[in-house]
Design brief:
The chain is about 45% helix and about 15% strand. By secondary structure, the chain is α/β, with parallel strands linked by helices. The strands form two sheets. The chain has a seven-stranded mixed sheet with strand order 3-2-1-4-7-5-8, with helices on both faces. Helix 1 packs across helix 5, helix 6 runs parallel beside helix 9 and helix 8 packs parallel to helix 9.
């Protein structure tokens, strides 16, 4: 690995939000360290009850660049990720990546993104998205109900909210920290899964540009999915509010 590549890695922070993912974290962090050895990793855990906190303490003793935060009261993917963003901004990082903790994302995609950044191919890109819905993107292991729900969310995100990406529900992303500094991340109102669309909406409204990279998304093998009917309803409610915000801004111009 060249010194230039090591430099871009050392200026990158990876955020992993967790809730009861003790079965999946060891393999995920091992893969991240194999592919991205120079990145800093921050795990934000929502007070898991499956031994995650104990395992994180042991792991930190072996990896000094690894940090974690146990949240006792706040809950939700969005609020946990935003907490990680704050930490990355305080560190004066250049890029911040996000992963699902369940093993469905391949860290080699972030490696590809960082390599293209280092090669100067993404100079005007602010958010790189690991996409299941562009050419060569795939999903493995999902039931038809989840496929339909995911497609529906992305249809609404594009045609009613106005998002330009095809996969607005993917949590595998790489954000340019300077773009995050230009928005008020504390203004993100949906602190659950709906934040995935809301932060893209806020960034896009601020002029940020996106690039999608094809990924193969594999359903988790261990642990229980956090996606429930209540979560799905909250995501659609968030999209409705974003759509109304878009309409109000259109008529106020």
């Amino acid at each position: 690995m060249s010194n230039d590549n090591q430099k871009i890695e050392s200026r990158t922070v990876i955020i992993v939000a967790t809730l009861n993912e003790a079965e999946n974290l060891p393999a995920l962090l091992a893969k991240i360290r194999e592919v991205l050895p120079k990145t800093s990793v921050i795990v934000v855990d929502d007070n898991s009850q499956d031994g995650t906190a104990e395992w994180l303490k042991v792991y930190q003793e072996r990896d000094p660049s690894f940090k974690f935060l146990i949240r006792k009261s706040d809950r939700g993917l969005g609020s946990a990720t935003i907490e990680g963003f704050r930490a990355a901004i305080r560190r004066d990082s250049e890029w911040v990546g996000t992963f699902d903790a369940d093993g469905s994302h391949d860290p080699r995609v972030l490696r590809e993104m960082l390599d293209q950044i280092q090669a100067g191919k993404l100079e005007n890109v602010d958010v790189c998205i690991g996409s299941r819905y562009v050419k060569n993107g795939r999903i493995e292991g999902w039931p038809m109900t989840r496929l339909i729900a995911s497609r529906a969310v992305n249809f609404v995100s594009r045609w009613f909210v106005g998002l330009k990406a095809y996969d607005n529900t993917s949590a595998l992303r790489l954000y340019r920290v300077s773009a995050l500094r230009e928005i008020d991340i504390d203004s993100i109102t949906n602190l659950g899964y709906g934040y995935l669309q809301e932060i893209l909406f806020v960034l896009q409204e601020n002029g940020s540009s996106f690039r999608e990279f094809p990924i193969t998304f594999r359903d988790r093998e261990k642990g229980k999915s956090k996606m429930t009917l209540a979560v799905a309803i909250s995501v659609f409610w968030s999209l409705l509010r974003l759509s109304l915000r878009r309409i109000r801004r259109t008529f106020s111009r």
